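[scheduler] slot 2 assigned
[scheduler] job type: sequence-to-structure, two independent chains
[scheduler] chain ordering preserved from manifest
[runner] begin chain α
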Amino acid sequence: MLSELSEWFWQERRWFPEGLGWADLEDRDGRVYAKARDLWVALPIALIFLIIRQIFERMVATPLASLLGVEDTVRLKVPHNPTLESYYCNITKNPTQSSVASLCKKTGYSERQVQRWFRRRRNQDRPSLLKKFREASWRFTFYLLAFIAVICTNCYIDFKINDLYPPLQTLLPSQYWYYMIELGFYGSLLFSVASDVKRKDFKEQIVHHVATILLISFSWCVNYIRCGTLIMLVHDSSDYLLESAKMFNYAGWRNACNYIFIVFAAVFIVTRLVIFPFWIIYCTWVYPVTIYKPFFGYYFFNGLLMTLQCLHIFWAILIIRIAIRFLTNNVKKRNNAARHLFL
């Protein structure tokens, strides 16, 4: 049963254009190609990243936070009440007025005491600035090192529009490790999502991580290596700026945070809303149909890219709103300063 399912899943007509197949990815004449079995390497790498992260946050991020003045917030614990705790954990963290009245009868508390208990309980669950800082510093370190590494090793060099498909791509050692490390890192983010800070775009982050892992894995299996490398490079080019802005924000360095965020917004818009759709997606969506008939792998790959692009648009709207708010407030401050200067 499993063998039949595997044979059906890996059918050549599903993943390759007509005339190409798995035999074209066999190593020969000094040319090396990606192998699906190599993806297992990413699992131990993900576990290693989880261990390194714990060491990094304790040995590097925490002293750095102390140096920048970020302190761990001590939150008062609410008095233990089994009825309210059960309601908080199993039903909702924000009870309605009717639910508060019902809880008053069960606990003997007044409405004000119940509302205060839930407010303090929610506050108790809020992540501290130190936790946010350590998480941001870990991501900043990885994204920055990954971006520098891919630029220095030139694993994206000699990209040509007709190099998108398997027969023309030979695998470089730098590309191999770039893929495995990126896949391992995003795998570690997925493993740690339950303990990480849950932000407003938590669901979108989950979709992004899953789509990224599928995209990396699929592009590796069918040897779309150079295209996949460019996609990861485009993403790494702006992510470290966002994480550094978060770090300065948590440290209270508002001006540094704001200016870095403006730079991040500019890089994000250029890379995610211009280069990504009008260059990379063009090379994977428009150009291939001039050579091959569309096939399932074509739709699957581009479907993942469009999922990422939808997330890019969603985040770009949020980023532009924040940038406009910053610029507007900055202009108001300057106008007020000028008004006081001439009074």
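[runner] end chain α
[runner] begin chain β
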Amino acid sequence: MVLHPPPHQHEQFILKSALYSRLLVLSLTITWRILASPYDSSAPLNLPCLTANHTHTHTLPQSQTLLLPKLASALENGIVWDSVYFVRIAQCGGYEYEQTYAFLPLLPISISFLSRHRAVLAFSGYLICNVAFVFAALYLYRLSMIILKDPEIALRATILFCFNPASIFYSSIYSESLYALLSFAGLYYFVKGGNNLASLFFALSGCARSNGVLNAGYLCFQTMHRAYNAMFQQKRTALALGTVIAGALRSVFVFAPFVAFQAYGYYNMCKGRLPDELRPWCKARVPLLYNYIQSHYWGVGFLKYFQLKQLPNFLLASPVLSVALYSVVYYAKSRPENFFSLGFRTSIEEKSSGVVFLSDDFYRSKKAGNVDKSSVKAKGIFV
């Protein structure tokens, strides 16, 4: 029995599935909020902003200033957990407290264009996050098509993403959807050979979530392989040096937004204060605000999560973790040479079939039909 549409209709099917999955999640969210009291009771809290130029927005309850006060109240009741911080930053036009610097600025900036009213910010947040998820699913499918080269498997992977166990985070006012969209888009253009455009999307992902800087790893890995090929296979030292410089510049570009945000936090929280007023992280040799906040306020750090009280969360994540671990072990056993050599022993055909690892000159020649695969094999080019 055929369960999926033909390949040329897959993208349309993906968009519909992503949209329906968001509607399902939002419906379930509303239903459970009606049936049960929320665990987080911070939604009604709406204290005046500390900055004087924004205090006028709080002279009246904001739901009373809108045409649909019941809808506004319902939207504001959905501002819980991390959403409180994102909306607060957008509402007050900046970062008021030290702990708010754990939340990067892309989402607050994105939701603040229409209005500073709390209900409108909530509506903008829900709209942007859910729309971002739909397009993230589309980019994931396109990326999977290139990597997997199988429309059916790519479709199944994307459908699993649409209905993943963590779906609620992608439909709330959280940064996960924007991050997924920017990361998938960056990877898509990366494997298509558009390194500059990929670097832009990776840098923007670092404006959404701190782990966006890890996307620079794709560029570094590619640079390592290209430089190796240029130096040891093509014997072109100048090309190898140019490859390293270009890769380094792109990686710095990806890191730049996060580093700039840390500098912004240092300037606001440390600059111009007396020594006895300085926070501990201000006095550090490398004053990294983000690490301090995560450790001090949320107890986040290397292996800190591995506690007995977190056992229920590990059990909840165990199905997905098991599948991921099985996939890694399966690939390592089936392709041990590729796995343990970090791809340096992968054949030229495999390298050129997906992710771009070799030099731009090679791919320009490949597109022009000037690459003789038999001669490449004879030269023993394994990069």
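[runner] end chain β
[qc] chain β: Residues 242 and 261 are 29 Å apart (CA to CA).
[scheduler] slot 2 released
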